[in-house]
Design goal:
This protein is mainly alpha-helical. The chain is about 80% helix and about 0% strand. Helix 1 packs parallel to helix 9 and helix 7 packs antiparallel against helix 9. The radius of gyration is 18 Å and the shape is globular. The relative contact order is 0.11.
Length: about 170
């Protein structure tokens, strides 16, 4: 049950990303591309105006190659580097996420607000007695749905605006 709740985020990412898919995405492309949705690939793809199947495939292949190579190099380096330097490498992941999130936040105030709200509400949810006992994964899903719903209500993207953005990207 915990794994299900934690991994529901991939469904949320898929739903969100479906708004960015161009007209060449048929059912088969959607099924194949869905296997490549990870946090990092989602972050890169959703920052585009429009996404083609081959863009998603490219992201997936390049990312998979990078993960395999990085895992190999990390395992090799972990045996050679001093423990203090190996331990510091854990911070690199946070730097990568910041590098993915900051550019869209600079371009769009709604995204910046959403990210800031997620930081604040995530912290607050660890303090409130009734909420802090809920597992971290479940809290993340609940906060994601709440923040996404609030932003969708406050700043909805109408079909005409979305079609104009897709047309400009093509």
């Amino acid at each position: 049950l915990t794994q299900l709740v934690i991994n529901i985020r991939y469904s949320l990412m898929g739903i969100s990303l479906s708004q960015k898919l161009d007209g060449s995405f048929n059912t088969m492309h959607r099924m194949i591309a869905s296997f490549g949705i990870t946090d990092e690939i989602f972050a890169v793809a959703v920052s585009q105006k429009s996404v083609s199947p081959y863009y998603m495939y490219g992201l997936t292949v390049v990312s998979a190659f990078g993960w395999v190579l990085g895992t190999f190099l990390g395992a090799a380096a972990g045996n050679v580097l001093p423990p203090s330097l190996s331990g510091a490498m854990g911070i690199v992941l946070y730097g990568m996420f910041l590098a993915i999130v900051v550019p869209p936040c600079r371009k769009n105030i709604v995204i910046a607000f959403s990210v800031l709200a997620s930081f604040v509400l995530s912290y607050v949810s660890t303090i409130i007695p009734a909420v802090k006992n809920i597992s971290g994964g479940t809290r993340t899903i609940i906060l994601t749905v709440i923040i996404a719903a609030v932003v969708a209500i406050i700043r909805p993207v109408n079909d005409d605006q979305q079609n104009e953005e897709k047309g400009a990207a093509e």
